Amino acid sequence: LKKQGSVGFLKPGVKPLGFMKGYYNFSQELGIAVTHSNIEVVCGSDVVFVAVKPHLVPLVLKEVTQHVTGRHMIVSVAAGVTLATLEELLPENSVAIRLMPNLPCLVQEGALLFARGSHAKQEDGALLRSLLHRCGLVEEGPEAWIDIHTGLSGSGVAFGAGRLLRDSGKHPAQLRSEVCTPGGTTIYGLHTLEQGGVRASTMSAVESATERARELGRKSTAGSRK
């Protein structure tokens, strides 16, 4: 197993902030260095989490790609951005992993699913597990499961998160806004909930969020080829 090394986050958004807090929650001293430079993050890190909105992934990776080397493991948490797209945007033979966390990582009760790219080895998956195990349950699966997990666990957590509501001390509306990216998977699911009864709509909401994740994947693939 390779040495853990340093970890960097490229401009984290909403959900990534959740598992970042979960990852560092066990430590009283965070010791996090903050910079406005994505290149500086990549050059100073071994494991790089790409934590930007899906439509920004091509732009961000284009900015840093010449600084990505064999020592790096690139972990994307962007919904719908496929491993094929990541590997197309990164240098040849880059180690890429696709990860979907969820908001309960804030209270270390998350459910995280990851899929390894064609050049990521088992030891890379083991390293990711060791980094994130304090956030909750971390499992590996085929990439086809990621979109389903996005709809069921990544977005679905916004549909009912009792412990998070209890422990965070935040108003439910604030928690909802923290996971609802305009045009994203969660807001599509919540919109479906508003259209009908809760029980039937919960099933439709998960389906809607899952399909939206797949749609984002198709768009990211098309965008990377332009």
From TrEMBL:
For this protein, the record's InterPro entries field holds: 6-PGluconate_DH-like_C_sf, NAD(P)-bd_dom_sf, P5C_Rdtase_cat_N, P5CR-like_CS, P5CR_dimer, Pyrroline-COOH_reductase
Instruction: Decide whether keyword Endoplasmic reticulum is in the record.
Output: no
Q: Which UniProt keywords apply?
A: Amino-acid biosynthesis, NADP, Oxidoreductase, Proline biosynthesis
Molecular function, one GO term: pyrroline-5-carboxylate reductase activity
Give the binding site residues for NADP(+): 51-54
Q: Does the keyword Amino-acid biosynthesis apply?
A: yes
Q: Where is the Pyrroline-5-carboxylate reductase catalytic N-terminal domain?
A: 26-80
Checking Gene3D superfamilies in the record gives:
NAD(P)-binding Rossmann-like Domain, ProC C-terminal domain-like
- Please state the Enzyme Commission number of this protein: 1.5.1.2
Q: Which residues span the membrane?
A: none
Task: List the catalysed reactions.
Answer: L-proline + NAD(+) = (S)-1-pyrroline-5-carboxylate + NADH + 2 H(+); L-proline + NADP(+) = (S)-1-pyrroline-5-carboxylate + NADPH + 2 H(+)
What is this protein's function? Oxidoreductase that catalyzes the last step in proline biosynthesis, which corresponds to the reduction of pyrroline-5-carboxylate (P5C) to L-proline using NAD(P)H. Proline is synthesized from either glutamate or ornithine; both are converted to P5C, and then to proline via pyrroline-5-carboxylate reductases (PYCRs). PYCR3 is exclusively linked to the biosynthesis of proline from ornithine.
Q: Supply the name of the protein.
A: Pyrroline-5-carboxylate reductase 3
Source organism per entry reads Pundamilia nyererei
Q: What is the lineage of its organism?
A: Eukaryota, Metazoa, Chordata, Craniata, Vertebrata
